[in-house]
Amino acid sequence: MQSKYFRWFAGMSCMSVSVFMSLPAAAQIKIGVNISTTGPAAAIGAPTRNAMLLWPKEIAGQKVEYIFLDDASDTTNAVRNTRKLTTEEKVDVVVGPNTTPNALAMLDVIAEAQTPMITLAASAAIVEPVDGKRAWAFKMPQNDSHMATILTQHMAENGVRTVAFIGFADAYGEGWWREFSKLAELRKLQVVASERYARNDTSVTGQVLKIMSARPDAVLVAGSATPAVLPQKTLVERGYKGKIYQTHGIGTLEFLKVGGKDVEGTFFPTGPAVVAKQLPEANAVKKVALDFTKRYEAAYGADTMTQFAADAWGAYMLIANAVPQALKSGQPGTVQFRTALRTALENTKNLTVPQGVINMNPKDHVGLDQRSRVMGRIVGNRFTYAFGG
Asked: pTM for the full model?
């Protein structure tokens, strides 16, 4: 499968990209982007790319060149793209991918190239433990354990005693099962069924029938983007009347469009930027989240903010915060600069991004705390604030 590729000099419009394809690179800092703008994860990749097209044209007085590759939601493509970015383009940092399996597959490449990667995928397995290859990996989305904590709290405080689980049959689903099952036990929630399905499945009737036979008070669907709709739609069609929860992976406009009335009332943990306008005034990240929401909606329309757009903007803020320190050790394009950039990222302190406040260290390459998540609910086919923060 051929990856889609384009080079974008920051500050130029998308329409002008082809004109500059044959010109020598003029930028000083090179940022390589590998995201999913096609394939099953395209609903995540689209708002990611939209946010990236708003990234400023300079960082710390240095011009920036952005090189975009589409992995088509495919692991083999993700690895191929990462090699192209690190060995041929010699980028200073890689941003992406959108999915956990692709991010895990890219770890060996970035370690070999000694190039930092700021991933937009969710699983803690991407950055934990911070060993040799994970020393070069950083992550914007909240860990599954972080989100599962507030989700199980909501369940326990709202009358849920028995719960069923259905998740992706990949690293995303397994990561959520691992964290959710531990926290469910701590909160005295009885898990009465546990099922899996593939992202590209067209039917989950068998799994849903098993779940419904267990008569749970609630069902948690551990999926992302539009493939997360299928289990919920099937539950509703089969007459399930209990509470339905989803993960923060659903935060796309396409999920709302495809889900329609079948996802109305869904509870889900989310980053604060997704519901920035409704956050309590005392929320620690509301100002930054609102500022980005206004910028994003000015470009793409009202009520277009998503988890993934906010994560992408946070990645830019993380890089912009680290570059001035890295420039003290070397020039862009050198191993000294990449190494210093990795160290600067690892030592990020009190950086407020739309999704929380980041404090990293050599053992924590996420750095988010409880300020990075709230509970949301789908009401009127929109993501709304429920509680927390």
From this structure: 0.86
Q: What is the CATH number of the domain that holds 260?
A: 3.40.50.2300
Give just the sign of the alpha carbon dihedral 30, 297, 371, 253.
Answer: negative
Q: Which two tokens stand for residue 206?
A: 């068998």
Match 């994970």 to its residue by tokens: 134
The strand ranges marked E within the chain are 4-9, 29-35, 58-59, 62-70, 93-95, 117-119, 137-139, 162-168, 190-197, 218-222, 243-246, 267-270, 351-353, 356-358, 374-379, 382-387
206 domain-assigned: yes
Same domain, 13 and 129: yes
Tell me, yes or no, whether 94 lies in a domain.
yes
CA gap 183, 50 in Å, rounded? 35
Q: Please state the separation of Cα 138 from the chain's center in Å.
A: 12
| DSSP-derived secondary structure letter, 25 | P
Report whether 8 contacts 68 (CB < 8 A).
yes
CA distance 351 to 317: 8
Q: How many domains does the chain contain in total?
A: 2
Domain that includes residue 303, residue range:
4-142+297-369
pLDDT, averaged per 10 consecutive residues of the chain (389 residues), comes to 52 32 56 96 94 97 96 98 98 97 97 98 93 96 93 97 97 94 97 97 98 98 95 98 96 94 98 96 96 98 94 98 97 97 98 98 96 96 90
Whether the Cβ atoms of residue 204 and residue 212 lie closer than 8 Å to each other: no
Single out the residue in 270, 285, 312 at which a domain terminates. Answer: 270
**Could you tell me how far CA 90 lies from the centroid of its own chain?**
25
The two beta strands, 29-35 and 93-95, are parallel
Residues 30, 94: Cα–Cα separation, whole Å: 9
Report yes or no: 204 and 229 within 8 Å, Cβ to Cβ. Answer: no
Pairing of β 190-197 and β 243-246:
unpaired
| 305 and 258 within one domain | no
